[in-house]
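Unconventional myosin-XV
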Amino acid sequence: MSWHSDVRLTFPHKDDIPMSRSSSWSHTCSASSGMSDLASTVARQSSRESSRGSSRGSSRGSSSDASDSNMPDTQKLLEQKYGVDMSVYSQIEDLTHLVGPLTEDSVLRCLQARFYSQHYQNKIGPVVISVNSYQHRPSCQALLGPVKASVLLQGVVKDAVTQHADTGHSQAIIVSGESGSGKTFCAMQLLRQLFDIAGGGSETDTFKHLSATLTVIQSLCSATTVTNPECSRVGMFIENFITDTAIYRAKIHAYLLDRERVCSIQRYEKNYHIFYQMLSGLGTEEKAKLHLTGYSIHNLRYLSSGSTLQNELEDKARFDAWKSALSILGIPFSDVMRVFSAVLLLGNIEFVEGTGLELDLVGNNEIKAVAALLGVSGVALYRGFTTRTRNSRGQVCKSLADVNMANATRDALTKALYFRTVSAILKRANSIRRPTCNSTLSDSIESNLHQDSLGLSGVRDMPLSRNPSLTSSVCSNYSKKTRVDGFISIVDMFGFETAECNRLEQLCINLCAETMQHFYNTHVFRSTMQSLREEGIQADIEVTYFDNEPILELLSSKRSGLLSILDTECAQPRTSADTFVSKAKVHHRINNYFFEPLPKASSVFGIRHFAGRVVYDASNFLTNNRDQLSDDIICILSKQNCNFGFVSHLFARETKSSSSSGPGPKGMKHRILPSSSSGRNGSDEVRGTLSSDFQNKLDSLIRTLVHTKPHFIECIKSNDRCEMDMFDKDVILRQLRSLQVLDTVQLMAGGIPHRMRYKSFNNRYAVFLTHWNPYQTSSQQEHCKAILNSFLKAMDDSKLPYVSTQWTLGKKHIFFSEGTRQQLEAMRVEKFDNAASLIQAVWKGYLQRKLWPERRKTLQTQQGAPKVTYPVQRKRSKTKESGPKKDPRLLQQASSYYKISLEAAPAIPATRSYNVSGNVRLSYPQSRIMKDDFPKVASDDNVLCRGEEVKVIGPASARGHLKVQRRNVCLDVPYHLLDLKTVPAPDGMDI
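Tokens:
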């Protein structure tokens, strides 16, 4: 294989660069223990001073164009601490351009210098690193707050739009990072920029509808956690469908997962934001209608068990914006409020052991209020909680429920009411302006979720194509051709997180984070290395990365994965969490990524994730994974028993299947939030579990992303305390290692991470060839070589900054470095710009020449000039006439029009009786001062001395002279020898 290296970068010896995650990384950062308190104080104080007078909801924190006026003091402190010129690092936008050895210390210093210069985004070739400074606050209306995005985020959107227009391939911008790293805010900035570039701006109906939908989701699916006060508890896949290079429709696929939070919140955390906002935003009369009079955060059990801190003014403003957004979507506000009020009051209902057979009720007023809000009978609602119907071999029997079962049914109804309402809102929002064909993601009651029969192992085994062929990403039937060009999607999925007590929701969230990290590793590292080995190419630098595939096998393997074991245990009628944990320990006792935490407990286990160790409490794993609701309570909410149409519609599928076999409960179990497979094939009972549904949706999402061109944005939180302008190096370092940023920098700076098939490369960069005949060569490889030769010549003639280039030709692909990619794209854009300028110039010249005769007639008519008829042009004689041609007839007409005599000489203009100095008109006589003696040789009586004041009476007959009067004698004095004494200003003011 032939290699080319125009300017080869110099890299340190491989022993000087930490190439493995298992090796010790601490030696590269021994001098970087964290910024001093003085430097942090100066930085935060400087930021606060620079932000005075600006609104709290501005997006200045993410802008790279912010003012640097307060940075010198901070830079001096940082330079004194580290002995490095921080101004040099702050100018480095791309981490691949770092000078010297590529170590964690150099990457950290660059990020720190740019962070305190208020540049929060950095590049690693095509990958963007975004550091969350916690300066932005969520706007009341989504997409309206982050108006101005950074230059690098704008570049990502422009690249996605350009590549979609050039190739027709669907694009995906994937935003990843830990919980609290600013993924949702970054996604909103990207979405706003995408609509500004390809969606027609913020005044289009599509943008307003999408903004209203995201505003509703922002309140319904966001909550306060220990690490993030604005934590989004939903994963989003936003498809922006493109036709004719313009966005004509957007669709949101939301992944609802954190269901336990509605009825059980942990210490220092809060429930979903909508509950606090409605308590602050509802008026007195509205609360009375909703039976919420006298209730607050402190006496509602679903809210009082967590943090009770609240900003009522802010919550009221956000509630008003949420109410307006709900009206834009055409959803009745009163119906949604009735359901959410019932959810809050259900928490104050509690069943306890009674003296008799039946259970006693704590909260009699609350159950009456809930029954009135849901439109059912209070007695029927009580019976639905305390009665359990079983189906034993076709025989239906009823029994009284115990305390735990009744309270569990109450919580299950609470979660069903809330999440089915959220799903109905999303389905309504996505049903407006449907496209001509179905979406890639199958519609369900959640209106948003992927469904596929393959597991995660099938996705991992599927090769990820760098340049996938054009697929129909909008139609469910891929073989059917449509007029839709594809989509540009923004993926904001769950990030890695830990809580005080990690439940099943945290396990699924971390599974999602592992899957997205595996997709990144496969696309950036694995596929590149595998292609090089397949084509027999030996790279100069071998990057060792951490492959988390064993962790995915541990979690989601169909044979012995933890979630598979959990599903098996959920299918058993009698089992417990201890049994599940014991079986998991038997299967994975020797697994390096599975451990038993100390002190040992029967229902606790731990997993070593790619981002850190997490200990899970499996006490409620079985209940939460079953995700079941008995039909005893569902039958009460049927159309026959419920006069509230909105609620009966939420459970229409289940009540319809139950009524088909007769009235009353049948002892069936239904899902709290059904998936698209529920009730199919005539089945009355639900299939699947919470974890299996989430795995299928996640698998289908990855299958969709495989057929797109991904663009990666890695988000990093600057500290764990959500403090503004605080750069915690330990926190940053932990995330850099988990996201494998240094490995990516080494690959992009010294390797050849990009590859293209010869045909695709030739089609894209054929612009470098001025003359090319495809029949002159016998292969695409020869064509590629000709393009590269022309590219080298164009580099010498280009005015662009010179960068290193490196490439090699393989069997099927051409492999090239990041510097080559940047130079190719930059020069391609330059050639297109030059060609566009030339085409515009030629076209505009032709158009003006074509329109000039008519325009000349219009100008002559406007000026009132007589119409001139030109004589018929005849052939020129061979004898050349000397001098310009004169038309006597035309001269006569012009002289008569302007009253000019052709025989008389032109008159001499009259001499002006004034002169002008500056903007002041001076009349004669005037006083002036002599600059020098005049004349040099003359009698003593007629000599004008230097500095003498003289009187000028007017202009002299001689050119350039003024007439000066002295003792009744007039002298012609040159103008340059006279200086004005004073020049009176207008309105009597002195100059």
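Residues 818-863 form the longest helix (46 residues).
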